[in-house]
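Internal ticket #5521
Category: modeling
Description: The requester needs a full-assembly model to guide mutagenesis choices. All entity lines are attached below as received. Residue total reported by intake: 866.
Assigned to: D.W.
Attached entities:
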Amino acid sequence: MPVFLNASDDNFETAFAELLGAKREDSPDVDDIVAGIIADVRARGDAALIDLTAKFDRLQLTPQTLRFSKSEIEALIAEVPGDERDALELAADRIRAYHERQMPEDAYWTDESGAELGWRWTPVSAAGLYVPGGLASYPSSVLMNAIPAKVAGVERLAIVVPTPDGVANPLVLLAAQIAGVDEIYRIGGAQAVAALAYGTETIPPVDKITGPGNAFVAAAKRRVFGKVGIDMIAGPSEILVIADGDGNPDWIALDLLSQAEHDESAQSILITDSPVLAEAVTTAVERHLETLERRAIAAASWRDYGAVIVVDDLDRAAALSNRVAPEHLELCVADPDALAEKITHAGAIFLGGWTPEAIGDYVGGPNHVLPTARSARFSSGLSVMDFVKRTTLAKMTPAALRAIGPSAETLANSESLQAHGLSVRARLTHLNE
Amino acid sequence: MPVFLNASDDNFETAFAELLGAKREDSPDVDDIVAGIIADVRARGDAALIDLTAKFDRLQLTPQTLRFSKSEIEALIAEVPGDERDALELAADRIRAYHERQMPEDAYWTDESGAELGWRWTPVSAAGLYVPGGLASYPSSVLMNAIPAKVAGVERLAIVVPTPDGVANPLVLLAAQIAGVDEIYRIGGAQAVAALAYGTETIPPVDKITGPGNAFVAAAKRRVFGKVGIDMIAGPSEILVIADGDGNPDWIALDLLSQAEHDESAQSILITDSPVLAEAVTTAVERHLETLERRAIAAASWRDYGAVIVVDDLDRAAALSNRVAPEHLELCVADPDALAEKITHAGAIFLGGWTPEAIGDYVGGPNHVLPTARSARFSSGLSVMDFVKRTTLAKMTPAALRAIGPSAETLANSESLQAHGLSVRARLTHLNE
């Protein structure tokens, strides 16, 4: 059974703190294994990739077949039914339109000292996207990772995707094609991350690696961080629904279950000011659980990490939600815009009863790669910003240097950095000669 | 002696690759020690901080004296000479003015389906800044870390700074006051990072930790990453100067030395199309080295990691610089703006001979916390963006859901995520009833 809490109860704070502190993922200690795999790929390149793919994916590759050929991709994509292709294209168009608005602007101005200041954004040159194999091989995630990279202007975009027993997911390949991906390699695990970070004879290295993966992939991304950039390390998915008494219990139950069905460690929380709705949603969850294909997973998630919290008013609901800092937040209330104003920490907000979280997973437009495990307190979802970087610009004139140079010299000397001071002084002396 | 290379030589590629690959920092293996310290602070809180500060800083604290009192700060600040105070205030004003332009904008729009989409930026609630003690206790770094946080709207900003033998740097305290820092604790090392991340009886936890530190501090930041956000882990400083034959050899030599004097692992590189200038700068470096107070450090850095590269033309210089992706790039050439257009990877660019890099360390306005070790290929200097995070917004209308909902359902089913599909279908069914 999920946790039921009433925010007016005496022991609420203790129980809520427990909910916040619950550790929802026990990654096995894979770090040593991953370190060995990375060392192997660095030492033996393609040969290591081929051996490891034979071992883990039961697939015999050669340097020539590490990468999907154009004709293989075309042949597999041809299998995709028309409605799925249309849906993927609609999703891609909407994601692209949303992310194009994220491109940051360059700036350059002259300040009152006469100094010219500013910054310029440039794309990462090459990026690699990890796409999981098997059941968790989601074409929607290919779009969500690849489109922001291409919008940012990344020139070379490579995908790595394991194909256990040689079985590829045609929809993943189609999503890659629609998003403009340049290279697709049939490798996975820590070895694929190592190949992207360090390069092999066949695979040139990239500058940034994004995309979800299992504990081995996460550990490998942590290890290559610094050599390349990485995105966040995603934890299990989460949803928090704030609903008033007019919420539709059936819809809310399905929204809660759409997180729960992802993973036994996923978390679904309902906060409501209506005890009647709390009861009705709980009943609806139990009813839907009976018919879900993934009911074993969803039921375990709801039982172990689910929570229903009754509050006196919606302000309290917003305050509690801010302490959770959920990945997904649905506001199924009469005035969702007003309530959204009170939200300070959340990865994505879905406003009103007509906006199920699943819309955001596929076709809404915003990214579905979002901060988990309370990290929305300090981080953001994936965006174009993850594939660009800022170079700051400064240009002094003689007059500007005369105006502000002496202060730089004073501070350099106070920090005992003599050459810093002299580099300014030498120019000021020249100006005074 | 530094490396001398000519880009036309046959073996240039090999030598240049070696320069790029040189490992300039051997952090001792401190990770186990740091893990123990963090566990101790989590278990014993203030008591652990007090014991560790007695041990490492030879300073006996109590829970009451962990934090600097207002009157202590005022008394120490009163010692600061007027010219240093003025310089710090000028620097703070300029840094604030620059960073205020970085505040990102919210967006909210209605697309052609009728869906309302957008995003909203909110500040991190609480941030902690690490300030090293002793020689590397730089007031300028306090400004560079604290001002972007305050511009972003961070409500609670705490500094941790070790005070070995109880000796505090009055300029650091003054910089903190000018920048609007709310709390200052006299603790350092991994224990200070642990206290900021997990909190103790006296120190409330923060959401994000930034600021430079030694190998212990860097290892601690890596370990608490995820529980809180961190900034980049900074490596040794770097400068690359591109100069034509009209460059002033004396100024360029001092600019190269102003990085070299930071650290024996710092790196200074000159790329020029003038063999005469290359020679003159080298001579000037040797001459200035004789008189520098920090000549032992600067000479070791120049000898072990310095490089002078002669190229046929400045386009080649830009291309080589892009492969280095330097932290600081000076363009001491006749037309620095034109050359800057060819730069794709650099932390900060200093345009023209009147802009010594030291201006950027103190009073230029842009941040001096910049990506090192070639990470300008994929990351940016510290900015307001490090202290805000984006929440995406989506609001469907019945019409919008009718238009795009079926595609979401199709994709959910193709990914075998049944509850996702049902959450959309339940609403569509209602609309069709």
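Resolution: model delivered.
Comment from assignee: Chain A has 17 helices and 14 strands.
Ticket closed.
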